[in-house]
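Write out the 3D structure for:
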Amino acid sequence: MSDTNLERRPALEAYSEASRNALRRYPSPEKDGDRLYPLATPVLKPSFTMTPDDTVFTIGSCFARNVEAALVNAGIEVVSRDFDLGPIGESLGFAGNFFNKYSIHSVNNELRWALDRASFPGKDILYPLQDGDRKYCDLQLGSAKLEFPSDEILDFRHRFLDVMARAAEADVVIVTLGYVEVWYDTKLEIYLNVAPPAQLARKDPDRFEFRVLSYEDVLGGLRDLYQILSQYRTKPMRMLVTVSPVPLLSTFRNMDVLVANTYSKSVQRAAIDAFIAETDGVDYFPSYEFVVLSDPRVAWSRGDYRHVSPDLVSRIMSTVLTRYVEGAAPDEGAGTSTELLSDEALEASVRMTLKLKEHAAALALLERHADVVSHSAVLLQLKGVALSGLDRFEDGFDAMGASFALAPGNAGPLERQIAWCRRLDRHEVAKQLLVTHLERFPGRGEFRDGLTWLK
């Protein structure tokens, strides 16, 4: 019998375990279909907890920047987000892009160099793009041209590593794996973060290699990551690992990019499960599944299948925090199929559902969180929109009124009520509301002028 099974248990124990798992069956239109469509809701099962005061360090592919932003918006201190990279960092635009690490080896390089500064290769990782000392690229950071003297670039580089070193002090580390199509420098014997420019490859054709990581490569890299952090951390390890849903832009392999991307994501996803099975203090959170299983019309913000909707990122991270942060979720079993959402995640979910014109689904989601909705002007307004989409204008009118009562500085709900009075044949009510509108929003004359049916 194989000694490399991910799990192994006696038959009756397996049956018993399955009987207790409320989420064991794949959703269908008849049962739990709302867990999959239109917004996928995979359930997390934490092995550790966080507090609202815990600090978080994030590292990984570009999706890690989305994770950072969502955590900051949720009031979590993200220590990898606060940095001063000096004049060079300021001159290159959004310096956060330098923190994008697209493979597990790129992540490990930076953490190893940051925590053991003597291992940092120094000027050797600066690739000259012309003769002299004024134009370089650092293939660990990105493809930006660094038109500065090498000593100034190295000062900038050490500032960057100072930020990386915070991984040893943060309470929780979040790692986002990106791709397995990587490049290798045979001279320095290190994996690169991005492809070398063609001019460098032509200049020294034997120096760089394109490689595709295997399952063993990824698993080995995750083990190295754990070893690096464990060596320098004094706090217990609490780590969340995920796979970026952002696909390959293109492939260097001789195959359809759709097939190449599936391998890239699948092999990393498989390696993570093996890593977690053998490692304490590490969990997987399914941002990949949240995105790729959801309706693509709302999953991608620009309709390009590459930029994840900020609403969906908010929903993902709010779900993570609701599950992990002590006291944030009701005392329900880890196997429950109930969707636990923060106010922010609920709003994001409803907005995405309404974008799909799934008014009944949006209303059902709001009604499942009725206590939260009753105290939120924004959610009450969204409820009114959902109700109007179902031709329930009387109920929608009441929801807009409740929203305006909570936020009388917002003209939107009041204007919806006035407009719906025509459909509801409430002309006198409309005139009374119009008096309130003139008093509260004198500058909104264009709206009032458009109400020709009241004149």
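Residues 330-338 have pLDDT under 50 and may be disordered.
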